[in-house]
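Lecture notes, unit on protein representations.

Consider one protein chain, 271 amino acids long.
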Amino acid sequence: MRYSARVDPPWSLHAWRKLARHALLAQVAPASIDWIAGAQQTLLPAEELSGAPARTDSIKVTQEFLDLAAAVLCHRDPTRHGLLYQILWRVREHGSRLLGRATDPQIHTARVLQKAVHRDCHKMKAFVRFRQLGGSENDFLAWFEPQSDIVDRVAPFFQRRFTGMNWTILTPYRSVAWDGQRLRFGQGAQRGDAPAEDANERLWRTYYRHIFNPARANPKTMQQEMPRQYWKNLPEAGLIPELLNQSVAAVDEMIEREPQLPRRRIPNRRK
């Protein structure tokens, strides 16, 4: 028998965990399940997994596996749901030590996806730029394009960081808003739904220009920490090429400048 399992929303640990638990209790092998992400259409006819007869036993998994699954589910790799179930199936057979086996192909793949999601979360925390909405002193909006489905995962960080202001973060697949009381999640949006610029942005560019240190400017390192894919949504990004060019000229000037001997210090003589 072949079954289909729809995870909706695709990044939800709760949704995936419920289906995976039922599949284990029904003893449905990984190869017999077609995992479907959200509203995605099925390619082959299959019975819904929820209809498979299952026992009512309890299933316990380690926190390490749950943490791994929560991160991997945020990745957009189409094989992630099935990959996690394959790992879970094997963990039930061989124990949780499997998770520490870095040479295992499935574990290696899962760790790579987990690392990519963690990196994307870090970038979102660093590169979201709020713009003040016109006519309001405490309402702010930001546009961001994450590489993974991490809005639900990262939203609590912004809640703690900006708890005193009302803010909304728009992304192509999901939005989140904080009104000072609770987080509200909604549909995705378009870049044009966010304001183009505000007065604070001009001040930020001025500040960024003044704190930019030409002696520490390394284009390769900078692009590793601030990949170009994020530049289009950063107010300071338009300054970076100019500042990098200026930094090269400034460093060359310092190198070519003739060294100056230190002035001789005349000690103070006591009378």
